From TrEMBL:
Superkingdom in the source lineage: Eukaryota
Compartments, record wording: Cytoplasm
Similarity comment: family membership: Belongs to the GDPGP1 family.
All residue ranges annotated as the GDPGP1-like N-terminal domain in the record: 1-31
Protein name per the record: Putative GDP-L-galactose phosphorylase
Domain GDPGP1-like C-terminal: 38-184
């Protein structure tokens, strides 16, 4: 659908069970907004290029850790890599959100743990009081604020703080990445050692200061990362 629309401002989103999907109603959501989402502007670090041409990268300098899939010899190659990854997360009971952007050419896969932390009482009352359920659009940077107070005090800093609660810790994210790559390889998308060889390539990443990288990599609730933080699209 995103490819057929042929408009980079037309996106599709998906929320899995445990990631604020409508109860007993799994579906895709279509969304048109004529500005880039903050997540689309976040820098990435290339992890690998599969033998079928699909490039997989990791988000950097963004409050929610995630993977970015793009390229591929065909659109089907890209779809296969993402669907294999989603099935893997579902089979391992890992909630996730998906954003399909750039006319279907770029797909963000975002494992998350907000509902789990909420159930365990690990989310601060200040964040809970906002009543924001961080699903795919919120994670992508479009916040729907329910209280007048939150709207009047809206800032990139507050959006960053809320979304940081969604992200997996660095250690857990590495475990999930390993599961995803194992699933892709098992389904035949990484034949001839495509993943292992590509991991030796020089990372393709926008320049960042040491302070930014260190702040990003600390725990599941990273501190504010210095520099420009574009996290909220407020309408």
């Amino acid at each position: 659908m995103a490819a057929e629309a042929g408009n980079p401002y037309f996106r599709l989103g998906y929320n899995s069970l445990g990631a604020f999907a409508t109860i007993n109603h799994l579906h895709f959501q279509a969304y048109y907004l004529a500005v880039p989402f903050p997540i689309e502007k976040a820098p990435t670090k290339k992890i690998t290029t599969m033998t079928d041409g699909v490039k997989i990268s990791e988000l950097l300098n963004y409050p929610v850790r995630g993977l970015v899939f793009e390229g591929g010899n065909t659109l089907q190659d890209l779809a296969n890599a993402v669907s294999d990854s989603c099935i893997c997360l579902q089979d391992n009971n890992i909630p996730y959100n998906v954003l399909i952007s750039d006319s279907g050419k770029r797909i963000f896969l975002l494992p998350q743990c907000y509902a789990e932390k909420q159930a365990l009482g690990e989310v601060s009352p200040e964040i809970l009081d906002t009543q924001v359920n961080p699903a795919v659009w919120e994670i992508s940077g479009h916040m729907v604020l329910k209280r007048k107070k939150d709207y009047e005090e809206a800032s990139d800093e507050n959006a960053w703080r809320l979304l940081a609660e969604v992200s997996l810790s660095e250690e857990r994210f590495e475990e999930v990445k390993a599961l995803v790559f194992e699933a892709i390889m098992a389904c035949g998308n990484g034949e001839n050692g495509g993943v292992t060889q590509s991991l030796l390539e020089k990372p393709n990443v926008s320049p960042q200061s040491l302070e930014e990288v260190e702040a990003l990599n600390k725990g599941s609730n990273p501190s504010m990362v210095p520099g420009k933080q574009e996290c909220a699209v407020l309408l």
